[in-house]
Design brief:
The relative contact order is 0.12. With 192 residues, the protein is mainly alpha-helical. The strands form two sheets. A two-stranded antiparallel sheet has the order 1-2. 45% of the residues lie in helices and 7% in strands. The protein has two domains: 32 residues; 147 residues, no CATH class.
Length: 192
């Protein structure tokens, strides 16, 4: 019994410190130093309603919007709680069928020529908020047609929304799909 009591007291003490005090302290510091990031990098609309996060992909499928990278969690609506890749290999029949279906869907919208991989293959997390500039440029004609805008106008908007490589050399130039689509919506209403 004399060994059990110190063990129980140590368990309680470390539970309070590691499970309560430390997380509260770190969360408080994060909210003070990086308030936007600590709260999920949420983007609010005109009326204050949350439109999404700049860090998590959003589902867009209407022709007047740029489409994001496919999500392995699409059955769950780009749900971060279901984050993860499919673990399917590049020669798996189901994977090849899925990619083939995505290519056909893009071809049905009038896309010709090579299709960037990020428009038909999900990322490892399944929640990427970005697509490459090549993937976005491929969608300009469809988006411009659906919105009744000139392709030059949409291309200019894309150029303004483009993000450079991280640290100048990591990754590819890219664009955040949610931010780009919100900028499109700010241009005005659709024809019709």
């Amino acid at each position: 019994m004399k060994e059990l009591r110190p063990a129980i007291m140590t368990l309680i003490l470390f539970t309070v410190i590691c499970g309560g005090i430390y997380p509260a302290l770190v969360t408080g510091i994060a909210r003070a130093v990086f308030p936007k990031q600590a709260n999920g990098s949420l983007i609010a609309g005109k009326n204050g309603a949350e439109l999404g996060s700049a860090l998590i992909g959003q589902p867009f499928s209407a022709p007047q919007y740029f489409w994001p990278r496919p999500s392995a969690t699409a059955d769950f609506g780009y749900n971060p709680m279901a984050s993860g890749g499919s673990n399917a290999g590049p020669t798996t029949p189901d994977y090849l069928k899925t990619v083939g279906d995505r290519v056909r869907a893009l071809r049905d919208t009038g896309v010709a020529g090579p299709i960037p991989a990020d428009l038909v293959q999900a990322s490892a997390s399944g929640l990427d908020p970005h697509i490459t500039l090549a993937a976005a440029k491929l969608q300009i004609p469809r988006v411009a047609r659906a919105r009744g805008l000139g392709e030059e106008t949409v291309a200019e908007l894309l150029a303004r929304a483009a993000e450079e490589r991280q640290l100048g050399f990591l990754g590819e130039p890219r664009v955040n799909v949610l931010m780009l689509n919100l900028a499109l919506d700010r241009l005005g209403s659709l024809p019709g």
